[in-house]
């Protein structure tokens, strides 16, 4: 896609520090890392987000992450990592080419816990029913 920074990296128009590459996947160090070793894993075909990505690209991305995550963690001396993606602007997605983050973590104190909200049982059941209905309808 024209103008996509990740497509430009894939095409060699923008340099990157590659960690892993195969026919469908590229992994490279983030140029604005949250922590040392912060890595991005992208499909080599343009897909806007997780939901729009062809399944034939998702499995190789997960397999690549599983291969390189232990090496990233060991190389930077981290004890854990986050594996995440954002799907849509409201979720914090800023580059609209699917990408997974591997973010090394060194202590729990560097993370803020997710805010939790109590859900009333009827509300949770209504939400679950609505999700199940929409999912079932998508299978038809």
The topology string of helices and strands comes to HEEEHEEH
CATH superfamily: HIT-like
Widest β-sheet, arrangement of strands = 1-2-3-5-4
Count of extended strands: 5
For the record, the CATH architecture stands as 2-Layer Sandwich
The SS-based structural class is alpha+beta
Describe the structure.
With 140 residues, this protein is of the alpha+beta class. It has helices at residues 5-10, 55-76, 121-138, and strands spanning 18-21, 25-29, 39-43, 80-84, 100-105. It has a 5-stranded antiparallel β-sheet with strand order 1-2-3-5-4, covered by helices on one side. The chain is globular, with a radius of gyration of 18 Å.
Jot down its keywords.
five-stranded antiparallel beta sheet; single chain; alpha+beta; 3 helices; HIT family, subunit A
In short:
With 140 residues, the chain is α+β, with helices and mostly antiparallel strands. The protein is 33% helix and 18% strand.
Task: Furnish the topology, listing elements before pairings.
Elements: H1 5-10, E1 18-21, E2 25-29, E3 39-43, H2 55-76, E4 80-84, E5 100-105, H3 121-138
Antiparallel strand pairs: 1-2, 2-3, 3-5, 4-5
């Amino acid at each position: 896609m024209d103008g996509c920074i990740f497509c430009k990296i894939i095409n060699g128009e923008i340099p990157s520090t590659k960690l892993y590459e195969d026919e469908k996947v590229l992994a490279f160090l983030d140029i604005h890392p949250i922590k040392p070793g912060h890595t991005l894993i992208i499909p080599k075909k343009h897909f806007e987000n997780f939901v729009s990505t062809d399944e034939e690209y998702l499995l190789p991305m997960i397999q690549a992450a599983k291969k390189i995550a232990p090496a990233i963690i060991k190389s930077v001396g981290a004890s854990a990592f986050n594996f995440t993606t954002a799907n849509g602007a409201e979720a914090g997605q800023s580059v609209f080419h699917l990408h997974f983050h591997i973010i090394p973590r060194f202590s729990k104190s560097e993370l803020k816990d997710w805010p939790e909200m109590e859900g009333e049982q009827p509300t949770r059941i209504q939400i679950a029913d609505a999700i199940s209905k929409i999912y079932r309808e998508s299978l038809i």
